[in-house]
Design goal:
There is one protein chain. By secondary structure, this protein is an alpha/beta fold. About 50% of the residues lie in helices and about 10% in strands. It has an 8-stranded parallel beta barrel, surrounded by 8 helices. Helix 5 packs across helix 6.
């Protein structure tokens, strides 16, 4: 398909070298309000889609088909506002990645984000993440770059190596992924201002940073990120957290209970509102298979 107005718009914004601020959208009303308040771009948050669309935590439970369907609806609601869309790990081997990219391409997203976590993935601001070897993710990138219908669909390469392997490894991977052809690089979860600055100085590519309310990364100002040279700042949780607070407040008013026990203070608390602890218990139970089962 030819480059859409939204894809052309995202490229134009990047070429201006001014920080693009993209709020996290996850449903029709969040997309419509993002458009109607004049935002420059939007980010389809996988965590938000999992929670709001399916009542699930962001631990790899939502499928490629479900995500692509949500991306199409959100892109349609946004119109010419560029949508950067989370596609997790690509949902399988390179051939699965091809299908994922084709689906997101048809959905009309302006950029697709892929990450180097082991499947099933976890939210980038949860502990105990694991990553695949860098050459494995480079195969994912190669498949994604080949599968897109035009160069207007940008590919965002995210590395989650900071947590399990350290910042040096994350920066090394970031530069590898840029050299492999990724249009935008995303080093997930730097843990202080010095790390944010070092990523900006040592990664030679347009950079995306993820600012999560209550997450591992300090919430740097837009002016500081612009000064450091970041291209995009996504705010995946802002709308979701406010919407969740509003719903909890209304529900507790209806039955006269206290809101305080339900309020999340960190990403893990939020995901427990949609059953993360129960899902992880299931994962632990079935991972401990008796030898007699073989």
């Amino acid at each position: 398909m030819p480059a859409t107005p939204a894809r052309r718009r995202l490229r134009e914004l990047l070429d201006k070298r001014e920080l693009i601020v993209a709020p996290g959208v996850f449903d029709g009303i969040s997309a419509q309000l993002t458009k109607r308040t004049g935002q420059a771009a939007a980010y389809m948050t996988g965590a938000g889609v999992a929670a709001s669309g399916f009542g699930l935590p962001d631990i790899g439970l939502v499928t490629a088909t479900e995500m692509a369907g949500r991306a199409a609806m959100i892109a349609d609601a946004l119109g010419d506002i560029p949508l950067i869309a989370d596609a997790d790990t690509g949902y399988g081997a390179p051939m699965n990645v091809v299908r994922t990219v084709r689906s997101y391409d048809v959905a009309g997203v302006a950029a697709i984000q892929l990450e180097d976590q082991v499947f099933p993935k976890r939210c980038g601001h949860l502990p105990d993440k694991q990553v695949v070897d860098a050459p494995v993710f480079e195969q994912t990138l190669a498949a994604a770059l080949d599968a897109r219908s035009d160069d207007g669909l940008l590919v965002v390469a995210r590395t989650d190596a900071r947590g399990p392997l350290g910042l040096d490894a994350a920066i090394e991977r970031a530069n590898r992924y840029a050299q492999a052809g990724a249009d935008i690089i995303f080093v997930e979860a730097p843990q202080d201002a010095a790390e944010i600055e070092r990523i900006a100085a040592e990664v030679d590519a347009p950079l995306l940073i993820n600012l999560v309310v209550g997450g591992m990364t300090p919430l740097e100002s837009a002016s500081r990120l612009q000064e450091l040279g970041y291209a995009i700042a996504i705010h995946p949780g802002n709308l979701l957290v406010q919407a969740t607070f509003g719903m909890l407040q209304s529900l507790c008013e209806l039955n006269g209970t206290e809101i305080a026990p339900h309020l999340p203070a960190a990403p893990a608390d939020f995901f427990n509102l949609v059953g993360m602890s129960e899902w992880l218990d299931l994962d632990t139970r079935y991972a401990r298979k008796d030898a007699s089962w073989a």
